[in-house]
Amino acid sequence: MTRLVAYIVRFAVILFGYAVATLAASAFLNILFLASLGYAPAQAHPAAAASLYFSIPFVALFVAYFGFMPAAAVILIAEILGRRDWLFYALAGALAGALVAGVFLGLVDNVRESAFAVTETSAILAVIGGGMVGGIFYWLSAGRWAGSWWEVEKAPTSPGQSGS
Predict the structure, then answer these.
(1) CA 78 → CA 38, 120, 138, distances in Å?
(2) What pLDDT, in 10s, does the model give residues 74-116?
(3) What count of other Cβ atoms lies within 10 Å of the Cβ of residue 43?
(4) CB 124, CB 101: distance < 8 Å
(5) What per-residue string of b and e applies to 11-37 under the rule 16 or more CB within 10 Å gives b?
(6) Cα–Cα nearest to 95, from 122, 62, 127
(7) Half-sphere exposure of 37 (CA within 13 A, CB side)
């Protein structure tokens, strides 16, 4: 029974980490978009800050939708292997972002009459960077304990041994 509770708790932590990662990637993409338009923090109008309160969670829904399958594969691999280093999650997030950019943006590009076709290198790199930021924030919120449900406590071999 306690093992089942540990699995459920770990699953909840993974979902929380994924939500944090998608919000962080969305914030990164929003900031890049504002910077590409030439907005600086000193020039920011109060309405720009208020619009971020809506746009960051809204874009996070799209980030979560398009990045789910690559992120689920990365999370599964990390949990099985017990990977707990930030560099693994940063590189895996970049790979997930590259898959999203390659698959989604590539499929949209194949539809020649689409208004959503993105062929600029800077947009593709922004998606890859968003994946990297999401991976780092996933590590901060959930990845540092990856594979904790997998570990089995070792019992001493005999009552008199201390293990040193």
Answers:
(1) 38, 32, 11
(2) 999 998 888 888 899 999 999 999 888 877 766 666 665 666 5
(3) 8
(4) yes
(5) eebbeebbbbbbbbbbbbbbebebeee
(6) 127
(7) 10
Helix extents (H) in 82-120: 86-100, 106-110
**Cα–Cα distance, 97 to 134 (Å, whole number):** 9
Compute the distance between CA of residue 82 and CA of residue 150 in angstroms, rounded to an integer. 8
Per-residue pLDDT tens over the stretch 112-135 = 566 656 667 888 889 899 999 999
CA 58 to CA 111: how far, in whole Å?
Answer: 25
CB atoms within 10 A of CB 122: 9
Range 41-50 contact pairs with CB under 8 angstroms and sequence separation of 24 or more: none
Alpha-helix residue ranges (DSSP H) falling in 101-120: 106-110
- CA 24, CA 30: separation in Å to the nearest integer? 10
Token duo for residue 52: 């971020």
